[in-house]
Design goal:
Helix content is 71%, strand content 0%. By secondary structure, it is mostly helical.
Length: 300
């Protein structure tokens, strides 16, 4: 199915990434369970919903960075953009919703972080994530990152950290650390959508293939060498390049990838925007009701 049958279990499921994600999950349940009871006994028990968000986030991250979606992302551009969308637009908010405030306070209250607090300026985090993401999709940058393993890992980590910093401004899990009001958060979400649109538009409306990783067999084989075992040249002799696995012509695959990215972006930002709006409306409506004078009793 989709060509996955040609690859080994290790290629598909990356045991190393699995064990790292499993270890993080075990650590999470220890921290919100026994560790919380010992060090933060007055903190409320972490609810099932928060635990679900965390597990869902770590599972999606594993599938995209160590599971089948990662491998598929090297075979077709559509799955590559699906991978990027999930990793940077879905996983960070899920993790922020899943990790309770007392954990963030414990980690970031240390004086070590004081010199770096300026990095959490909302405007800076907004620009940092969108610039890193947009630059990555410049064809020459994308192809260079895809065929240089060390650069690939560093750049992906930088985008992930930047994504968490950007989403922090929107879903700040520690209320007293929030830098944006509800109205500003809505504007912030809208600005994110605007800044990502040019990159998506260039990909969607391109009239020719942009990325050698998905149309040049030699470049594709080199990139594949970082996610599958064995000699990459064997891939060329067996499959002759990425078109063997693609269910669409190269240009249509590229355009579909851009559409997927845009749709996921619109869905996530639209959903969070609606959530922030209704939270703001409820607070404003509640404050208005609280400020109304109590009616005088009849006959007084």
């Amino acid at each position: 199915m989709l060509g996955l049958e040609y690859f080994t279990f290790e290629d598909l499921w990356s045991p190393i990434v699995f064990f790292i994600c499993a270890a993080l999950t075990i650590l999470y349940f220890y921290v919100v369970g026994p560790w919380r009871e010992k060090h933060y006994p007055l903190e409320p028990e972490v609810g099932a919903k928060s635990k679900f968000w965390f597990v869902l986030g770590i599972t999606l991250y594993y599938l995209c960075q160590g599971g089948p979606i990662e491998l598929l992302g090297h075979l077709t551009f559509t799955f590559h953009m699906t991978n990027m969308s999930i990793t940077y637009l879905i996983v960070p908010p899920l993790m922020l919703l899943g990790i309770p405030a007392f954990v963030w306070r414990h980690v970031f209250s240390a004086s070590f972080w004081n010199p770096f607090r300026w990095l959490m300026n909302p405007m800076l985090t907004l620009l940092m994530f969108n610039i890193l993401f947009s630059i990555y999709h410049i064809p020459v940058v994308h192809d260079f990152v895809m065929v240089n393993f060390t650069i690939h890992r560093i750049y992906y980590l930088a985008m992930l950290v930047a994504a968490f910093m950007m989403w922090w401004q929107i879903l700040c899990p520690v209320k007293e650390w929030a830098r944006l009001t509800d109205v500003k958060r809505m504007g912030y979400i809208f600005a994110n959508g605007v800044l990502l649109t040019p990159a998506c538009g260039l990909i969607i409306f391109a009239e020719s293939p942009m990325y050698a990783t998905y149309n040049d067999p030699q470049v594709w084989a080199t990139a594949m060498g970082y996610c599958v075992s064995g000699d990459p040249s064997v891939l060329l002799s067996a499959f002759e390049g990425p078109t063997f696995f693609n269910f669409l012509p190269i240009i249509e695959d590229q355009q579909l990838g851009g559409i997927v990215m845009k749709l996921v972006q619109e869905f996530m930002y639209g959903t969070i925007l609606a959530y922030v709006f209704f939270q703001w409306y409820k607070r404003e409506h509640s404050d208005s009701n609280d400020s109304l004078p109590n009616p005088e009793p009849a006959g007084s």
